[in-house]
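Board notes (copied after class):
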Amino acid sequence: MLLEASNLAVAYGGIRAVKGIDLAIAEGELVALIGANGAGKTTTLKALAGMLPWSGGNGSFAGTPLAELPLHQRVRRGLVLVPEGRGVFARLSIAENLDMGAYARRDAEIGADLEQMYTLFPRLKDRRTQLAGTLSGGEQQMLAMARALMARPRLLMLDEPSMGLAPLVVELIFDTIRRVSAQGVTILLVEQNARLALTVSQRAYVMESGLITLTGQSSDLITDAKVKAAYLGE
């Protein structure tokens, strides 16, 4: 497995936000993590990325225990998070944001990857000198994804990429997610739109109140009566 977590727990003070969950993601998979607001999805991603300390459990990434990898080393090894709210550098241009995505790299392929990002996201190419803070929400989401891809991730974690976006823009973002996955990038997707997440992913975990309550093939979960009632509005 590329990523494994066993009994992962995260606590804020006396509140147990994640209560001991198991996750496993194989190389090349697109896995969704769905659940209601407050279920612990974002906390889980931040803990895996190294942004939050674990209060229990253990895990590994590409065979190395996560406990041995501080945040910057996880990024260098290819564990990359696109945060909820995009987190672009508002006062830097699109091109400068993309350069920041490759800050840990020293290889000769950075220029080629930059051109690939402009092919994948043509809107960014047209606006490469524009300040990121002046972009629309959809363009900022594209930039956040492109910046993360400039790090050449082995596992790309996406936190709520559709949040606050118009339906046509959401369609464009998820088409890009499919294309990135088809290129072999492993993806862990947290997404409030459960139907969309289950449609695009191969496997999924359902999270409720800090616990994983259901897991399986996405094609099975999308027809599960409990999932349909709780998350698909059926």
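Comment from the instructor: Residues 46 and 89 are 19 Å apart (CA to CA). The two ends are 34 Å apart (CA to CA).
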